[in-house]
Sequence to fold (602 residues):
Amino acid sequence: MDQFNREEFDQLAAEWRYVITDLICRAGSGHIGGALSLVEVVLSLYYRNMKVDPKNPKWADRDRLVLSKGHAAPVLYVALAYKGYFPMSWLPTMNADGTKLPSHADGRTVPGVDMTTGSLGQGLSAACGMAMAAKTDGRTHNVFCIIGDGESNEGQNWEAAMFAAHNKLDNLVAITDCNQMQIDGTTQEIMCLEPLAQKWKGFGWEVLEMDGHDWDSINTTINQAVAVKGKPVMIIAHTIKGKGCTIIENTVESHNIKVPDQAAYDKYMNALTVSAKLPY
Amino acid sequence: MNYHEMEMRAVYAATLSELVKENPNIMCLEADLSKASGTFSVIKKNHPKNFINVGVAEANMIGIGAGLAVEGKIPFCASFTPFASRRVYDQITISVAYANNNVKIVGTAPGITAGPNGGTHMCFQDLSIMRAMPNMHVYSPADAYELRATLKYMAKSTQPTYMQLIRPKMPKIFDENVTFAPGKAQILREGTDVTLISTGYMTKFTLQAVGELEAKGVSVDLIHCGSVKPIDEQAIIASAKKTGGVVTVETQNIIGGLGSAVCEVLSENHPTRIKRLGIPDQFGEVATEKYLFEKHKFGVPHIVAACVEMKEKTAKKHKCCS
Fold:
């Protein structure tokens, strides 16, 4: 695991936001809001919390990550490229014809993506299967799974919730990207999730909460989560949709942006709070 | 071992048990129907580490299967056909076929064999919808020996697969030496007048029909497609060239299933007159097999009549052509 340096992490997070926005703008459209809300969480997982080896993406003892909200793939692709799973030159091909980096997280073509996702509600079940396999084989790695708060409308999550608690999958740590927005409006307007923490507790999970943009909060909470024994853990990560891109930050419209021309490209890139050099 | 004296579900469980002993990565997944699919007293008891009951949650079962497959396990996920196919169609599409995870899905009590459970449980479209899914093989074995051969193949392959499992006893059609290969049909009788093609549960009835047809002087080429996808194009085309007329029989909607597969093959390779027997685009209902055969006209007498009619319609034309 990498040494934590607050300044470097801040710089990296800013750069990732710049790259994510560039990739989506180049592609002409994309799910930017839910990718930007996860930057610190995914960065922390890959640089601080998860046991991984980019040179050996299928290493049996690595920790796994299932990005169930597969539309946030740009943040995962950027993380994997920065960690060295594949060349940086792949990044600007996202969504181009014949790309290896399609809009939703794709384990078939992208080294380091542990499960193909994109149809909401399915990732937590797969993560349960992966955690179950580890238990069956007596292996000690952890399985992380990130779901969206909007995604939590899907009933399959709650089938998986029952299963994980019933089978005491304490090697499973789920994280809800709780930015309180979904496609058609706020989660409060469309389908109220609250009391979310109590729901997961009621399903037999340990529930923790964290500030999804604060390095210390993320690290402390994830460490606490992996130490829990006897039950799965849900971390509710309080995040801001579209964080870092001022014209869409904390708006429902940030879910998916259209970037038809250079003017739109400039508008979004100029709205980033920090600029950076593109690594490709 | 006389497997044909056992219920097919018992053969499924016994074979799965053998396979688990050979390969501990094989897993048996159930969604609260393990007694119905026969694994409750066999796999759960003898191989508890290889048995997962997810409760009444089929979507989750498929997802867990996908996750297990990511980790190198070979999950066999069973439920009644409607719940193993149409209820979880998107889960199978994305988490299994699209993601290319090695999950085996077993749909039990196919077609009219759902009998007393009636229309809600009588699935006539699983062959159709599973066949339409890229990266998915579709099998429907006809007896205990073919079932065992099919399961042994599935356990060794890395191919996402859907298999129909008949639950009751079935008469012996094959023997212990039968082999299974995807895209390879079994030629059960060789004849010259009509090609008769069936799969799964209906093959025991087409065999009966062939006996009656021979007595009537109709010579039948009988093809059993245990592998519906991929289908044995070569065998179908060769037979159609020989007979000039084809009758298909399945306990499925005639839209999209075996009959459609045969039509697709022949229309593009050797246009041939075809009669599809099965369910004419209707739902199931609580009823006896006899009633459903009569209502939908795909029992033995209807198969015989369709073949006789096919011979009459094609004989003259075919002779002219040949």
Remarks:
- DSSP finds 13 helices and twelve strands in chain B.
- Residues 248 and 259 of chain B are 5 Å apart (CA to CA).
- Chain B touches chain A at residues 49, 52, 54-55, 57, 59-60, 62-73, 75, 90-91, 93-95, 98-100 (CB under 8 Å).
- Chain B has a mean pLDDT of 96.
